[in-house]
Write a structure and sequence with these properties.
4 strands, four-stranded antiparallel β-sheet, alpha+beta
Length: about 60
């Protein structure tokens, strides 16, 4: 099972949900106020880069 971590940060207008997949890739989802989600899936490098841009530490 993959853990999902929620972050509320100034760099994003919506809460950010982060899950690292077993192969090193990651999913970053934005929980919009209207109840929908915007999902992104990235390579291990892209996942790390996006977390850095958002100011979320790579602690998973």
């Amino acid at each position: 099972m993959t853990e999902v971590h929620t972050h509320v940060i100034l760099a994003a207008r919506d809460p950010v949900l982060v899950a690292r997949l077993p192969d090193g890739r990651g999913v970053i989802s934005y929980a919009r106020a209207d109840g929908t989600f915007c999902h992104t899936v990235g390579s291990p490098e892209g996942f790390a880069r996006k977390l850095g841009t958002l100011g979320i530490p790579m602690t998973y």
